[in-house]
């Protein structure tokens, strides 16, 4: 179906969230594979309404740190704890999921699950995967979408 | 006027973002209190909105464990001593149905995430300037 539409809305959501609250932008929205490094952070957010699904966000540790610094307004060289970085990545995934859904299904009310850290997501049917290069790193999003 | 503000969000990162935005915007803040869900927020309100002190403004998320933002606003507005505290919702859920529901319950403002610092500043000025 609307795979292209889903992908476009996903990319628009990333641009909007990163540009508005993380003060960075997407440089290349078709970058696959993304080099995630040794210890990428993977966060899962589920959503349920008339449609349901799961969004996975994966970011390399360096990107996570850079995004967290921007979001929290850390001074250059100011160290952030792993906990702070984890919290920011979880909040980022929550906002990405919400921003995507408000574009794609604007009239629907969704319940989002609390973002949680997981191991690497396995391949699932109906999957859309998008890698993006940012001004200060990269990220990968995987969306599984289904009608209830 | 120096404000006493409560931020209700299960995300510590989001609470920090709102707090920093208030500081950067030059909004005179006397105290910022934090709660990670609606139940905790009601406890803070009970403690911090007791005469002679009062809370000037509450920011609240919707999706939270234990007690969500909708239930929090609903209960707050039934409490005689607390129902006048203005509540601004900050949420990723900006569907018309949800916004209408929160307004009916008594929220005075709604900010959809992602939200630029400027949006938070403007909304505070709008609500506090009433």
Structural overview:
The complex is a heterodimer of chains A (148) and B (130). Chain A has helices at residues 3-21, 61-72, 82-104; strands at residues 26-28, 41-48, 51-59, 111-112, 116-117, 127-134, 137-147. Chain A has 148 residues and is of the alpha+beta class. Chain A has one domain (3-147): CheC-like (Chemotaxis protein chec, 3-Layer(aba) Sandwich). With 130 residues, chain B is α/β, with parallel strands linked by helices. Chain B contains five helices and five strands, in the order E-H-E-H-E-H-E-H-E-H. Chain B has helices at residues 12-24, 38-48, 69-76, 96-105, 117-128; strands at 3-8, 29-35, 57-60, 87-91, 109-112. The two termini of chain B are 13 Å apart. The interface between A and B is medium-sized, with 28 and 24 residues.
List the helices and strands and how they pair.
The complex is a heterodimer of chains A (148) and B (130).
Chain A: H1 3-21, E1 26-28, E2 41-48, E3 51-59, H2 61-72, H3 82-104, E4 111-112, E5 116-117, E6 127-134, E7 137-147
Antiparallel strand pairs in A: 1-6, 2-3, 2-4, 2-5, 3-7, 6-7
Helix pairs in contact in A: 1-3, 2-3
Chain B: E1 3-8, H1 12-24, E2 29-35, H2 38-48, E3 57-60, H3 69-76, E4 87-91, H4 96-105, E5 109-112, H5 117-128
Helix pairs in contact in B: 1-5, 2-3
């Amino acid at each position: 179906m609307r795979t292209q539409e889903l992908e476009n809305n996903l990319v628009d959501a990333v641009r909007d969230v990163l540009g508005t609250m993380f003060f960075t932008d997407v440089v290349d929205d078709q970058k696959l594979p993304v080099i995630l490094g040794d210890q990428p952070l993977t966060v899962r957010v589920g959503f349920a309404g008339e449609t349901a699904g799961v969004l996975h966000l994966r970011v390399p540790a360096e990107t996570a740190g850079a995004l967290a610094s921007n979001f929290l307004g850390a001074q250059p060289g100011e160290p952030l704890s792993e906990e702070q970085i984890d919290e920011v990545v979880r909040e980022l995934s929550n906002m990405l999921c919400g921003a995507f859904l408000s574009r794609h299904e604007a009239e629907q009310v969704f319940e989002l699950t609390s973002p949680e850290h997981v191991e690497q997501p396995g391949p699932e049917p109906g999957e859309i995967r998008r890698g993006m290069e940012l001004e200060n790193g990269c990220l990968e999003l995987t969306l599984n979408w289904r009608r209830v | 006027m120096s404000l006493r503000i409560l931020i209700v969000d299960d995300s510590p990162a989001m609470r920090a973002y709102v707090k920093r935005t208030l500081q950067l915007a030059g909004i005179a803040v006397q105290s910022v209190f934090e709660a990670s869900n609606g139940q905790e927020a009601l406890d803070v309100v009970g403690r911090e909105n007791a005469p002679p002190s009062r809370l000037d403004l509450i920011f609240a998320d919707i999706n939270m464990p234990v007690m969500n933002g909708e239930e929090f606003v609903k209960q707050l507005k039934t409490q005689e001593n607390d129902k006048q505290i203005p509540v601004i919702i900050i949420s990723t859920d900006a569907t018309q149905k949800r916004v209408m529901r929160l307004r009916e319950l008594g929220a005075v403002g709604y900010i959809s995430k992602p939200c630029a610092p400027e949006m938070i500043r403007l909304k505070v000025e709008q609500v506090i300037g009433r």
